[in-house]
Amino acid sequence: MLKLFRASFVMMALFIALCGLAYPFAITGIAKLLFPAQAAGGLVERSGHVVGSRLIAQGFSRPEYLHPRPSAAGNGYDAVNSSGSNFGPMDKKLIDRVAGDAAKIRADNPDAVRAGAVLPADAVTASGSGLDPDISPGYAALQAPRIAKARGLSPSEVEKVLADATREPTLGVLGERRVNVLEANLALDALQPRAHPGAR
Amino acid sequence: MTWQGWAEIAFVIGLTLALSWPLGIYIANVWRGKVRWLSALERVFYGASGVDGSKGQGWLVYAIGLLAVDAAGFFLLYGILRLQDHLPLNPQGFGPLSPHLAFNTAISFVTNTNWQSYGGEQTMSHLSQMAGLTVQNFVSAGVGMAAAAALARAFAANRGDTIGNVWSDIVRNVIYVLAPMSIVVALVLVALGVPQTLAAHADAVTLEGAKQTIALGPVASQEAIKMLGTNGGGFFNANSAHPFENPTPFTNLIEMVAMNVIGFACVIAFGIVAGARKAAMALFGAMAILLSGAAASIYVAESQPTPAVHAVGASQTANMEGKEVRFGTAATAVFAAMTTGASCGAVNGMHESFTPLGGGVAMFMIQLGEMLPGGVGSGLYGIVVMAILAVFVAGLMVGRTPEYLGKKIEAREVKFAVLAVLVLPVVLLGFSAVALVLPIALQGQLSTGVHGLSEILYAYTSAVGNNGSAFAGLTANSWWWNTTLGIAMALGRFAYVVPVLAIAGAVAAKPKLAPTAGTLPVDNGLFVALLVGIILILGGLQYFPALALGPIVEHFQMLAAVAR
Predict the structure, then answer these.
(1) How far is B50 from chain A (nearest CA, A)?
(2) What number of H helices and E strands is found in chain B?
(3) Which residues, other chains included, contact A56 with Cβ-Cβ below 8 Å and sequence gap of 6+?
């Protein structure tokens, strides 16, 4: 009995050493050597300051920036508190939230709405993580006239930026077409550095 | 629904099945002791623990050894979680877990369930994630594969009195299968964007001047084994929906293949070791059929209009609440089918926000017994138990003593098989019924009414099925939920695996018979149909009443709401 007790604890301790320390430390070391940028979270710097991660949504709300999907992470876009809303499809709170968001998006984008743009589903739904860094090309196109107006750019200039930030499905079948919001916003600022009063 | 979505589902499942073939041959060699390239490391394990790794053991000795390893794992993990504030690698300075949360989490990871009553980035130090949770991801998977290997040997034996050596089975499955595959997958994931760092959280100032803190950690090393070992416990609260756990459609593909490939490979390995390749293909086929059916059903269900989006006149191509744009509906649907079919429990979209039928199919997949293809190892022994019941039922119909793979199936084996399959409904429905009338349990609910019933039903389904996914609106971090879910997880694992090992012992002791004209063939389409039928009928009879009151009622409520 005592022998069995000792054997199982010693074996477990060895597994901790092998799988819990040696393995993650080795992966950390190799990752740092081979893929330092990815291993550190794909952080993006501009003029020496970290402005975010390409993979993590941020709560852009000014008219001159591309806006992300709604977020249920913490109080919104909280990257230490990832979460979906977990509302069931019949939940009154979901129905009210979607109605509010839809009205706000339509009010923010009058030109697109007047031109007959349909609201894409991702624009009014919160993602599973609350940190979805992408939006659908449809939602990006809907915001293009607003961004162009706020920045005094031509629609085609904005559309080009959005097209450059668009990713296609991998191998033609995996996943969906999508626009990375931070990438697009960095490109918009690069195109026209004066129009972002919040930046350094 | 689009042709591209259907193509993605077919591609993912097809690739998984194709890759499981060569892997299964390798695993069979590991189970037969032919793979020895790390024998020096093996000797360290046996030598330090003072065990003989080569001596054959009877089923009872084997079972006691298996339980002892898990008991040691439980106590060590519980200790790490309770003491994490005194241990190194805690850059965020997280405090210790409460006793009931540590109890729940330790059971959860030891039983390969990975139910999480906590959000990882708010709770766990780097050391707890690595030396605590990651370790059990390996060991619990290795234990499942060990039991599967023992069962395979039992069917190969002819009047044998041993089923293998528990020590070498666990060590070999970890160091020859799980560890090398994890190293490769982890490095590929890092290359594709998954973080792997011991640093603290990063601070950013957004282009609009707002502050954002970004949680980081050794994610990739845990992510790899989380999928390969069908554990499913996320580094982050949002699990594989989090862009750091699953940044692109390609990582999504890797994670899906990883979470099912070993489960299918164990069936191939079983066929080789038990000398019944064609019969194993029948099991493989039944798994693949039901998995594909579930993926297709969830895809169709998630492409329906939902009331909230319908009401505001937005585009109605998909139910995007709780889903990520980069994956879309198809990749979320097939992920959901694979994770619930496999007792994995990782999610790349929130099951609670699925349509009623989408979430209902996910729940039903767990209730079918976690064998489609099931957890690594555990899925194999689960489907063999079902096959034993299938030949028993067929034997009753024609009035002959049933046989499976040359072994007579008699009263003892059938009793243990029934004992094993009864654990799920008794624990699941029993605890759910009690929780539905207890105020202390209902406090944790996000939803009430029909959806609230689904929330509770899903929680116990997930726990006793050792899945670990959730209708995550439920706030389970209270003493009631942590304690009862912990008990359910332990029963779901151990009250299943011990009868399975008893079956293995009984089967091993029988003479191996040659098939006769009166033997029911177990390697043709008819048997696949019989097996699929038994699985569906058993699951339907047990859970249809509860599902009718939950997802099915909600489905009709939703149809009515959309029609208005």
Answers:
(1) 6
(2) 22, 4
(3) A41, A79, A131, A133, B212, B214, B243, B244
The whole-number pLDDT of residue A193 equals 64
Residue B110 forms contact with A (CB below 8 Å): no
Helix B479-509 / helix B99-110 crossing angle, nearest 10 deg? 30
pLDDT in tens, A90-140: 999 999 999 999 999 999 999 999 999 899 999 999 999 999 999 999 999
- Half-sphere CA count of B369, side-chain side, radius 13 A: 30
Which of the residues in chain B have pLDDT under 50? none
Separation in Å, CA B429 to CA B42, B367, B511, B544, B546:
43, 11, 39, 12, 8
Task: Please give the C-alpha separations between residue A120 and each of A139, B2, B246, B319, B388, in angstroms, as whole numbers.
Answer: 6, 16, 23, 11, 50
Give the pLDDT confidence score for residue A194 in this predicted structure.
55
Map out the domains of chain A as residue ranges. 1-40, 43-195
Out of A38, A55, A129, whose CB is closest to B190? A38
Asked if A164 and A187 touch (Cβ cutoff 8 Å), the reply is yes
- The model carries a pTM of 0.96
Q: Are B89 and B125 in contact (CB under 8 A)?
A: yes
DSSP letters spanning B48-66: HHT--SSS-B-HHHHHHHH
pLDDT for the residue numbered B218: 97
Task: With a cut of 50, say whether residue A200 has pLDDT above it.
Answer: no
Nearest to B249 among A56, A174, A189 (CB): A174
Collapsed DSSP state (helix, strand, coil) of residue B205 = strand
Q: Is the dihedral of CA B129, B133, B137, B139 positive or negative?
A: positive
pLDDT band at A182 (very low <50, low <70, confident <90, very high): very high
- Residue A185 corresponds to which tokens in the numbers above? 């916003």
Across the interface, do A130 and B68 touch by the CB < 8 Å criterion?
no
- Please name the residue that has the structure tokens 């234990």: B143
> Residue B80: which residues within 8 A CB-CB, separation 6 or more?
B87, B127, B128, B131, B132
Residues of B in contact with A82 (CB under 8 A): 119, 121, 215, 236-238, 241-242
Residue of B nearest to A61 (CA): B208
State the nearest Cα–Cα gap between B13 and chain A, in angstroms: 13
Q: What interface predicted TM-score (ipTM) does this complex get?
A: 0.95
Rounded CA separation B35/B46 (Å): 17
Average pLDDT, whole number, for chain A?
94
Cβ contact, residue pair B253, A132, below 8 Å: no
- Reported as a single tens digit per residue, the pLDDT across A6-36 is 999 999 999 999 999 999 999 999 999 999 9
Contact call for A27 and B199, based on CB within 8 A: no
Comparison of pLDDT for A88 and A193, the residue scoring more:
A88
Give the phi and the psi of residue B325 in degrees, each rounded to 5.
-60, -40
CB contacts of B321 in chain A (<8 Å) are 84-85, 87, 89, 94, 125-126
Question: Which chain B positions have a beta carbon within 8 Å of A21's beta carbon?
Answer: 130-131
